Amino acid sequence: MVKKKKKKKLKFNKAGLKKAVLDIFYANPKKTFNYKQLSSELYIRDMPTKKLIHVVLEELRDNENLEEIGRGKYKLRSKGGYVTGTVELTQQGFGFVISDEIDQDVFVSAANLKRAMHGDKVKVYLYARRKKHNPEGEVVEILERAKTTFVGTVEVSKFHAFLVPSGKSPFDLFIPKEKLNGAKDGQKAIAKIIEWPERSKNPYAEIIEVLGNVGENDTEMHAILAEFDLPFKFPEQVEHAADQIPLEIPKEEYANRRDFRKVPTFTIDPADAKDFDDALSVHKLDNGFWEVGVHIADVTHYVQPNSILEEEAYSRATSVYLVDRVVPMLPERLSNGVCSLRPNEDKLCFSAVFQLDDQAKVHHSWFGRTVIHSDRRFAYEEAQEVIETGKGDMKEEILTLDRLAKELRNQRFQAGSISFDRIEVKFDIDDAGKPLGIIFKISKDANKLIEEFMLLANKYVAEFIGKPTANKKAKTFVYRIHDKPDPDKLDSFNHFIKRFGYGIQTNNPKAVSDSMNKLLTNVEGKKEQNVIETLAIRTMARAEYSTRNIGHYGLSFDYYTHFTSPIRRYPDMMVHRLLARYLDGGRSVVAQKWEEMCHHSSDMEVRASNAERSSVKYKQVEFMSDRIGEEFKGVISGVTNWGIYVELEENKCEGMVPLRDLTDDFYEFDEKNYCIIGSHSHKRYQLGDEVNVEIVRTNLQKKQMDFRLVENGE
């Protein structure tokens, strides 16, 4: 029997609910439950969380934690004393296995990893559990290798060679001399594991591509892409397929589309952009409403299912934005040419068209395929000047859209949307890729104008499919979902910001978002702004793609998707295909296949984001390499059991003060309070503290900077 809990109101996000549901099944391994019984066990009364239980049960079934033994009835899948999960290695060589099947991460010593590497999916045998410790186990089977190719630096000796991987890997790769394939000592290269002899400590590998000499900009950027298994060039056959697509639009295509060529239309993008995938049109209708068109490049008209271009786009799933380049999802012929909404050219689009009144209330919406003719291409700076001065090309259209965008923004925040307007760091880079300076980019009205109308289109497209009328069941669709914050993380964040005199309300989602917006406004321009904003973002769940809609917490939208960037995001192509199918009266697609595509797209988005951060880190270290010995003011931006991270006030570059270098005391890590504390002196270094540091070491290959704390008067 289930042991009854004291009746109390519990708060859950999806991850927390998943753990709570699994706990019930683990406590009752032979019992079946449906969502109503689980709601009762967890004292859940509100309908949104009850609906979330449906989503959680389906995911646990698909992950083989549960088996569905009848319609809506689930039972724990028997697995004995084993769990499956993903390996996360540490710098010290041991690892943790992250599993949905257990409420804590499983500790695995270096000796018990059994050749498992970072990211591998493994089966782990659990040891008898000790109180107050993480569960511990050993890897008994490697179910799926995360990767078999590695990027690193070649080290050649007289009789043999090794590739020293750049990322997290406890093993160097042994390269037989005949498998070097032209790689020389000290060069960056990509190697592939070919075998791992039983008695060998190191896997055997061969060099499959030489990237170039260490320190050269192209070599290092290509190495970062290779480290995250991201391509840096297109196969010849893909480029050839793109080159076959004509720029000219066939005359018969015009007749199949709504014609917007005579409506004032323009694009607003970064000054250096070449792939313009969204345009706006606006004019006043006879009924007094403003007709605003959000026109999106019709990529799926050119990239057909089962084609080589489609396969490549799906494989990449996203464009990658490194500090000095864009690695596009589609070949340049498409991304910068055929599909790009360049000025003074007819272009094919998929559009969301709205009729709005002067208060930006939407009275009518329409979705369909169109043809447009952009009258003007604006850089953000040019559009901002029109907004600030009231003068310039297409001033009436820009000022009208700016006014409507501000109304939409106010409505969104009143409904509970959270505002994260973070300062964006960009590098001024010369032709050789060397960073000359750091530029802070702040989002202004022109950026927000585009943002609001993209959000509007994404929201209404999602509602159009996900919220059918007349009690009809919603068809399978692709949503951009964002879960509620983890309550424990939220409480921990609230505890931390109290030391600065701030606080947030955690009673309900609306109270959280309102107080979070107030907090972000209050910290603007203050020394603790970046630390608090960074920590606030860390409390939030990661947004992802799914056919199982749970809404978008950060935007406070019940329905949200990505429709507006198909040149650079594969999920937007998925949305275009589904929307076109359903507009034509097509039947709902099979959810499981599209859920797998969503999962792949989410994974590739994370991978691209990690590569982007890695390239920024490399340029930061390169930029600061000439300033060893100089002192800077900074703020403690991270605290771990191996060191404290400090972000420099002057340029937002981040480095670490290793704990081993703090010789005045023995410091212990206090995870709950984001600080380290001296055992004898009780001296405390806490997240958000202002400190002075000196740069003592830089390591470009590891993308690391080491600092030394400089006390006042030292």
Automatic annotation (TrEMBL):
It comes from the Bacteria. It is found in: Cytoplasm. Its main location: cytoplasm. Keywords: Cytoplasm, Exonuclease, Hydrolase, Nuclease, RNA-binding. Pfam families: CSD2, OB_RNB, RNB, S1. Residues 629-710 form the S1 motif domain. PROSITE patterns: RIBONUCLEASE_II, S1. Its EC number is 3.1.13.1. The keyword Cytoplasm applies. It is an enzyme of class 3 (hydrolase). CDD domains: S1_RNase_R. The keyword Hydrolase applies. 3'-5' exoribonuclease that releases 5'-nucleoside monophosphates and is involved in maturation of structured RNAs. HAMAP family: RNase_R. Belongs to the RNR ribonuclease family. RNase R subfamily. This is Ribonuclease R. It comes from Prolixibacter bellariivorans.
